[in-house]
Amino acid sequence: MARRSFVAGNWKMNKTPEEARALALDLRTRLNSYAKCDVAVCPTNLCITTVVEALRGSSIAVGAQNVFWEKSGAYTGEISAPMVVASGCQYAIIGHSERRQYFGETDATVNKRIKAALTARLKVIACVGETKEERLSNVTQQVVKRQVAAALDGLTAGDMALITIAYEPVWAIGTGLNATPQQAQEVHAFIRDLVRAKFGAAVADAVRIQYGGSVKADNAKDLLSQPDIDGALVGGASLAAKDFEAIVKAAK
Ligand code: PGA
Predict the structure, then answer these.
(1) 178 close to 221: Cβ distance less than 8 angstroms
(2) Minimal CA–CA distance to 151: which of 207, 206, 202?
(3) Ligand 1 lining (C-beta closer than 6 Å)
(4) In the chain, where are the structural domains located?
(5) What's the pLDDT at 2?
(6) Catalytic site positions
(7) I need a surface site. Which of 39, 49, 133, 205 has the fewest CB within 10 A?
């Protein structure tokens, strides 16, 4: 089945509001009439409203980099899924490895955040991926299986229409070391099998699985031409409009 490609930019902790507006407007000019794949950018929370405003009426959607599971209350530093929706976002990245590595996110909190996002009707980019040590110890599949199972725990087949899974090997993020197209394809096919086992063939055929980890203009085509790679979650290369444009245009 033909899945529409989806390329998302994860701006991480980069760009002031002024810089974010400039990047969004540049992307808007470059990609506005581009309809061959879905595109989203995920600025810092501080820049969400600025970027939503800059991209209003364009084909580029906006996402948050995380959401908390409660709707409001005494949770210093967090933002909720309904707030993100009210600010004009359609997406939220959840479970990014940097959240797991530096901010204590666990499989259980990732699942809670995903459920809160779905309740607010946000589309979720759920991230999974093994560390270098795990790959070298040949436990990649075990780790990815555990993370996927936890992320999707308690979800229905209907919920899966709002889910994109991002496979991001931790050793490839921000390191310049991307997985080879074959390495990535192998894990993507494995993830699709996990979704098939849990939700059946129709959901597995429809779910989009992005690759992330040092995706650049020059390696995007080889990665994105793999049968089970349906797009990319792009960090560093999403911070320059020209590079991100090239990656979007490399998507099938
Ligand atoms: P990178 O980051 O493209 O800079 O490796 C990807 C990500 O963390 O989503």
Answers:
(1) no
(2) 207
(3) 10, 168, 173-174, 212-215, 233-237
(4) 63-232
(5) 85
(6) 96, 168
(7) 133
Mutate to test the pocket of ligand 1, among 214, 219, 247 (most ligand atoms within 8 A of CB): 214
pLDDT digits (tens, 9 = 90+) for 57-96: 999 999 999 999 999 999 999 999 999 999 999 999 999 9
CA dist 212 and 188 (Å) reads 11
The Cα–Cα gap between 197 and 25 comes to 42
231 and 251 Cβ atoms separated by less than 8 Å: yes
Residue having the nearest C-alpha atom to atom 3 of ligand 1 = 235
117: its two tokens: 């996002």
> Which of 132, 165, 168, 216 has most ligand 1 atoms within 8 Å of its beta carbon, as the pocket-test mutant?
168
CATH superfamily, region 63-232: Aldolase class I (3.20.20.70)
Using alpha carbons, list the distances in angstroms from residue 65 to 45, 91, 152, 224.
Answer: 8, 9, 18, 23
